[in-house]
Amino acid sequence: MKVETYELDEVNTEHPECTDESLKLMEQMGLKGQLELVKQPEPDATAKSFPYRKMTKDEHTVYSILCPGRTALDRYSDTQVPLRVLQVAALAKDHFKNLIVLHPQTVAKDPVLIGCESEWNSSTWFILARWGEELDAWPLLIEKATKKYSEQLISDLDEGMHKLTGLKDAIKSGVSGAFMLKHSGTDVSVRGPGL
After folding, report:
1. 122: how many CB neighbours lie within 10 A of its CB?
2. Rg of the chain, C-alpha, whole Å
3. For residue range 29-61, what is the model confidence (pLDDT) as tens digits?
4. Minimal CA–CA distance to 99: which of 79, 124, 71?
5. Partner residues linked to 100 by β-bridges
6. How far apart are CA 88 and CA 187, in angstroms?
7. What is the pLDDT at residue 12?
8. CB burial readout 153-165, b (16+ within 10 A) else e
9. What is the largest CA-CA distance in the chain?
10. What are the domain boundaries of the chain?
11. What are phi and psi of 121, to 5 degrees?
12. Whole-prediction pTM value?
């Protein structure tokens, strides 16, 4: 079983790029997010490291396509969760409201463990780990997601076109039948416009 984890190698509590000048500019410009990011803990406070990173938009999209199934870690039973992933989850549980396993819905292959600060369906996901017999490289994951998404779009379009063709045929036969009955002198109880 192969495992990839995504903890940051080093959680740096100091921000070398945060000079007095950059702090002053952040304050002048009201950059609350940047100020929160570089904020130093109070001298009495215990620094709490956060060794996880947000999923990129690309990762979010690719894993959402390849792994549309979502199961809370405490309910996940498709495959055995490896020890290393359990260790990551044990450390992450205090940082997140939810630990979720993203997985394919048909075949239990290469699940991904994510952490969410709020509801599991929020757009902010933190990638924690993934595991499987063969962990495809990122370029192959993109290729597979693109192919799967294209196939789904084509299938949806084909289904929609089939429904529209059926509706079109029903309208044609319904209108022509009503038209024939009207002009043959038979009263038609369901009438279209102008009939």
Report:
1. 11
2. 28
3. 888 877 776 665 444 444 455 788 899 999 999
4. 71
5. 72, 114
6. 75
7. 44
8. eeeeeeeeeeeee
9. 95
10. 2-12+47-135
11. -90, 15
12. 0.66
